Amino acid sequence: GIQVEQSPPDLILQEGANSTLRCNFSDSVNNLQWFHQNPWGQLINLFYIPSGTKQNGRLSATTVATERYSLLYISSSQTTDSGVYFCAVWAGSGNTPLVFGKGTRLSVIA
Amino acid sequence: KAGVTQTPRYLIKTRGQQVTLSCSPISGHRSVSWYQQTPGQGLQFLFEYFSETQRNKGNFPGRFSGRQFSNSRSEMNVSTLELGDSALYLCASSLTGQAYEQYFGPGTRLTVT
User: Distance from CA of residue A31 to its chain's centroid?
Assistant: First the structure.
């Protein structure tokens, strides 16, 4: 099946710093999503981005489907950005499930 | 609109017991998917139900089962619990069953001792 790799696995930032998280996937995908999991376990959908670039406030994401990678940018990080960021891909059609990467654990310190 | 709710939020069970977890989807959503999250294996798909029918199943042993009711609420059951079943169990609902439309619940954290 499709493989999803995220890097780096862990990241510690000073508040106000910028960061880039990467997601590589092994095969063509129909969809790619970025999620943020807060310290209480809640998964929040950040972006649905099968290709192109999207921005939402301090967060933006770019997917280059032909090269099988996606990037999540976090600018001016805040302590509330801490948590785990997951990339998930959907390779099939119909009711095929999401395949998640292992995540990047981000800690933003004041 | 209320989000996806899961009950209970925390659970401690003993090896060999069985457990039932519940998930109530967003109103109007007919698809419910279940995921297991562990530190070692990450987030893995368990199964998906749509209109009371299991449409897809991940690579888990038969001890893991589920069902969906006519009101779209779903339950998953794990029998003969093992220590390795300790995990965060997440459910997600979607309107049409497309994976990219899923909204996740807060999860049930199961600890097996």
Answer: 13
